Amino acid sequence: MNEDYIMVLCSAPDSTEAENIAEQILEQKLAACITMQPNVYSFYHWHGEVQKDREVLMMIKTRGQLFDELNQAIKRMHSYETPEIIALPVKDGDRQYLSWIDQVT
C-alpha cells in the first residue's frame, strides 16, 4: 500500500475477539490506535443468502507500509473465513497525530 497513513476497517463477531485482535496488533506495533464501535449491524451476502449480524467495528489507524503485515496478522487471528479488511487512505490529518503514528509503529 502506497499511502503514508491509512485507516483499516475490520469487523469482528464480538467484543472479546475484537479486543484480542486489537491487543495483539498493538503489541506487534502494527497500529497506533484502534477505535471500536460495538453493536454495528452488518447486512451481507454469504453462501448465496443475505445475512444480518451484530458485530464490533474496529477502526485501525496505522502507516500504509504496514498494511500487508497487518492484513496477514488479522487473518491469522480472526474467526471469519473471509474477514472484512478494508484500507482507506488518510488524505490529511493533524501533524502531531500523524507524527505520533510514526513514533509508535
Automatic annotation (TrEMBL):
Spell out the molecular function terms from Gene Ontology.
copper ion binding
Q: Name one GO biological process term.
A: response to metal ion
Q: Which residues form a coiled coil?
A: none
Sorted alphabetically, which InterPro entries does this protein's record hold? Answer: Ion_tolerance_CutA, N-reg_PII-like_a/b, N-reg_PII/ATP_PRibTrfase_C
- List membrane-spanning regions: none
Family per record: Belongs to the CutA family.
What protein name is recorded for this chain? Divalent-cation tolerance protein CutA
User: Which lineage is the organism of this entry classified under, starting from the top rank?
Assistant: Bacteria, Pseudomonadati, Pseudomonadota, Gammaproteobacteria, Alteromonadales
